[in-house]
Amino acid sequence: MRASLDGVRVLDLTQIMAGPFATMLLADLGADVIKIEKPSGGDDSRRMGEILKGESAAFMTLNRNKRGIVLDLRSDDGKSILWKLIDTADVLVENFRPGTMDKLGFSYDAVHTRNPRLIYCSISGFGQTGPWRDRGGFDLVAQAMSGVLSVTGGPDSPAKVGVPISDLNAGLFASHAILAALYHREHSHQGQRIETSLLEAAMAYTIWESNEYWVTGHTPSRLGTAHRASAPYQVFQTSDGFIAIGAANQRTWEKLTEATLHPELKEDTRFVTNQDRMKNLPELINQLTHIFVKKSTDEWLDIMDTYGVPSGPVLTVPQVYEHPQVIARGMDLQTQHPTVGTVHTIGFPVKYSGTPPVLRHPGPILGQHTKEVLTELGLSSEDIKELEEKGVTTPNTGTAKAH
């Protein structure tokens, strides 16, 4: 079965999180993603997170379905090989600091002149323009500057979102933009430059908060797990854990009062409408907390399901992968790594009826496909050996096992 992006070649000059996530999404859809790493250790994420037999588990997921080569882009030989790859490519993705690609000789203008059909995507901390363009950006800094951190956590202290949302959003937006640019190229026959940043990727998700500020002039506050526009819509403690309750509209609120056997709350003047409930949110939370703590999470889940009130348990990560719904959706995939053996990776979040993603292999060992890719470019074994001796690239260290 043909994958969605069969025939599309992507040059991945990214590392850590945002860029690799963007190119992983493209690789999952069938693109031939060639990850280009520096000789001195490769992608820094190879040394981050849990390490299994010398390989980073996170790296193996973020770079699954990609081919990996080592190339010193500071050397003339390395630059020459990158130009050969550019001639064959549809997309180039980079997340260096703005100006770095220009200094290396691979500015958008230079690349566009060489290959006018190529989509050139840049991901940075703050964007390619503006007074902060030259500053390094990290997920935490973007969360802080986007306003996300200021509205996350309880009333007394801000909290970072538990996952690197700025990084992941930037990667998601980048892949989305690349697909749109590829579609446009089908009609125009021209590539283009697209760019996003961790800052903008995080800001794009402050829809409730930004509009609250624009409409009221007030600074949005931290509400813990509560919703900014609907109540009750938050997490409550039970006798043995926590439960998330999504009574996001009037009808569901009324069902909730029936499910909790407290129909009088429906008539309480403090809670009649959503506007009333938001205005009196502390009192509402107090009332419902006293109710929910009297039963277990499982008991409440059964009750809420009976009455049609959206609810769910607060699961730990191990509990997530044990949940029957997650199992049914195939969100824990396994594949074989040449040195680690069987490894787990997060399943595909989108299901396709006609062009489903395929898990072909985990992230490559450093330099794993160098010889393969360079041979495709027409280099001989002697040429490749000479590049290895010069330190422009490194010998292959393994062969992926497809699964």
Task: Spell out the key features of this protein.
formyl-coa transferase, domain 3; 15 strands; 16% strand; Rossmann fold; alpha/beta; 18 helices; disordered C terminus; 403 residues; single chain; CoA-Trfase_III_dom_1_sf; 2 domains; three-stranded antiparallel sheet; six-stranded parallel sheet; CoA-transferase_III_domain; 40% helix
Task: Explain what you see.
With 403 residues, the protein is α/β, with parallel strands linked by helices. The chain folds into two domains: 9-204 and 328-390, 3-Layer(aba) Sandwich (Rossmann fold); 233-237 and 242-313, formyl-coa transferase, domain 3, CATH 3.30.1540.10. Helix content is 40%, strand content 16%. It is built from 18 helices and 15 strands. The protein has helices spanning 18-28, 57-62, 76-88, 100-104, 108-114, 139-146, 165-188, 198-203, 207-216, 250-259, 264-267, 274-279, 281-292, 297-307, 317-322, 324-328, 370-376, 381-390; strands at residues 9-13, 32-37, 51-52, 55-56, 67-70, 91-94, 119-124, 153-154, 157-158, 193-197, 233-237, 242-246, 311-313, 332-337, 341-346. A six-stranded parallel β-sheet has the order 5-2-1-6-7-10, sandwiched between helices. A three-stranded antiparallel β-sheet has the order 11-12-13, with helices on one face. A two-stranded antiparallel ribbon has the order 3-4. Strand 8 and strand 9 (157-158) form a beta hairpin. Helix 1 (18-28) packs across helix 7 (165-188) and helix 10 packs across helix 14 (297-307). The longest helix has 24 residues, at 165-188. The chain is elongated and about 85 Å long. The chain starts with 8 loop residues before the first strand and ends in a 13-residue tail after the last helix.
